[in-house]
Amino acid sequence: MRCPSCGSLDTQVKDSRPTEDSAAIRRRRLCLACNFRFTTFERVQLRELTVIKRNGRRVPFDRDKLARSIEIALRGGTKVRIKAGFTHEFEAKR
Ligand SMILES: [Zn+2]
After folding, report:
1. How many Å lie between the centroid of ligand 1 and the Cα of residue 8?
2. Does residue 93 sit in the same domain as residue 56?
């Protein structure tokens, strides 16, 4: 995994553990070139999902983008908070 700080490929996994709902593996990584620490998530990808936009354009499904869009849609008075597991649940129920 390339270091997001200096671009070195010389990085090491320091810690690996499942997330709270066991839907992903969280890895703490260390860059041996610049000592930058970062986290990666490993998730199951069952198949490629494609989103067909209103204008007919096809784009790859992006769960983070969906979560951000829902958060933006819920702004403006509502007190609903989206939990981290929401988009996972959404994907699982398709
Ligand atoms: Zn680095």
Report:
1. 5
2. yes
Centre of ligand 1 from the C-alpha of residue 34, in Å: 4
My answer on whether 80 and 90 are in the same domain is yes
Ligand 1 centroid–CA 17 distance in Å is 22
What is the 36 CA–ligand 1 centroid distance (Å)? 5
Q: How far is the CA of 20 from the centre of ligand 1 (A)?
A: 28
Give yes or no: residues 86 and 63 share one domain: yes
pTM for the predicted model, two decimal places: 0.51
Residue 25 in this model has a pLDDT that exceeds 90: yes
| Domain hosting residue 83, numbered range | 45-94
Which residue do the tokens 């390339």 mark? 2
Q: What is the pLDDT of residues 50-83, one digit of tens each?
A: 888 889 998 888 878 887 877 787 776 555 555 5
Question: Which helix (H) or strand (E) segment is 42 a member of?
Answer: strand 37-43
Reference 46, options 15, 4, 91; nearest CA is 91
